[in-house]
Amino acid sequence: MTSHPTIYLARHAETVFNANARMQGNGAHTPLTRSGIAQAEAMGEALRRELGEKPDLDFWVSPAGRTQQTASIIAEHLGLRYFDVRHDERLFEINVGAWEGRDYADIVADSGAPIVDRERGLFCVRPPEGEWYPDIRARLDAWLAGLDPGRPALVITHGMTARVLRGALVGGEPFEPGCVPIAGNAPQGTIFRIEGGAERAIHVGSGGQQVQKGF
User: Fold this and answer.
1) What is the pLDDT of residue 113?
2) Could you tell me if 182 and 165 are in contact, meaning their C-beta atoms sit under 8 angstroms apart?
3) Is 199 annotated as a binding residue?
4) Where are the beta strands (DSSP E) in the chain?
5) DSSP 110-137
6) Per residue in 21-50, pLDDT tens?
7) Contact (Cβ atoms closer than 8 angstroms) between residue 21 and residue 105
8) Is residue 170 part of an annotated ligand binding site?
9) Which PANTHER family does the entry link to (predicted)?
10) How many angstroms separate the Cα of 131 from the Cα of each of 9, 158, 196?
11) 11 is in an annotated binding site
C-alpha cells in the first residue's frame, strides 16, 4: 500500500467568477472578492491555530491566480515565505473546455438539458473539449506519487480537484459505474486534515458550492 504524508487540503476562497456563477477554468486570473479575502484570512487563522508559526511542511498550490492569492494570505498567517510555495499544474481545477469564461445560465440554456447533477454537485456531462473525473485522478495520482511520505503537505487547490483528491485518499462515491471515487462537497475555504485514510475538517468555509457558484 502506498504511504502518503499527512495532507492539509484546502479549497480556495470565493472569486468574482464564483460570485457571478461563471465558469472559471484555468486560463484567466479570477481574483478573490472581498468575501473571498475574508475567507482566506479565516483559513490562515485556522491553520495558524492548527500548525503554529512557521510549520515545517511542503506548501503546494495550483498555479491558478485564485489559489495563489489564497495561498499568499495563508502564508502570511503562518509566517512562511510565499516564494517557497510549490506550484504544480496537476493541482489545477477541472478543465471545463469550451465552457470556460461563460455564464453558467447561458451554458444551460444552450445545452437544452441539465449539465449538473444538483444532488451531488457534479457535472453530469463532460465539458466539451474538457476533462472528466478520471482525467483529474490521473494527474493527481502522479502528483501524489512524488510526495515525501515523511513530510506533511499543505495544499491549496480547487473544489472539484479537492473532491477527487479526497476520493483517492479517503474514499467516496463514483459518479457513474467505472468512474473514480469522488468525496462529498465542501464550501469554499474549507480545510481538511487527511491522514491514514481518514479526514477531519479543521475549518469549514463560508463560501458557496462549486456548481451553483461556478468552477
Assistant:
1) 87
2) no
3) no
4) 7-11, 58-61, 86-87, 116-117, 122-123, 153-157, 173-174, 181-182, 191-195, 198-203
5) HHSS--EETTTTEESSPPTTS--HHHHH
6) 999 999 888 999 999 999 999 999 999 999
7) yes
8) no
9) BROAD-SPECIFICITY PHOSPHATASE YOR283W-RELATED, HISTIDINE PHOSPHATASE FAMILY PROTEIN-RELATED
10) 22, 14, 29
11) yes
- pLDDT band at residue 210, thresholds of 50, 70 and 90? low
Question: Of 62, 17, 70, which Cα lies nearest the Cα of 203?
Answer: 70
Is 13 annotated to bind ligand?
yes
CA distances, 109 to each of 102, 105, 112, 176, 197 (Å): 12, 6, 6, 25, 41
Average pLDDT over residues 130-141: 98
Q: How far is CA 80 from CA 42, 51, 83, in A?
A: 16, 12, 9
Rounded Cα distance between 48 and 165, Å, is: 23
User: Which residues are tagged catalytic?
Assistant: 12, 93
**Predicted local confidence at residue 156, as pLDDT:** 98
Q: How is the chain split into domains, by residue range? A: 8-152+168-191+200-213
Q: How confident is the model at residue 8 (pLDDT cuts 50, 70, 90)?
A: very high
Is 12 flagged in the annotation as binding? yes
In eight-state DSSP terms, residue 94 is: P
What's the CATH fold of domain 8-152+168-191+200-213? Rossmann fold (3.40.50)
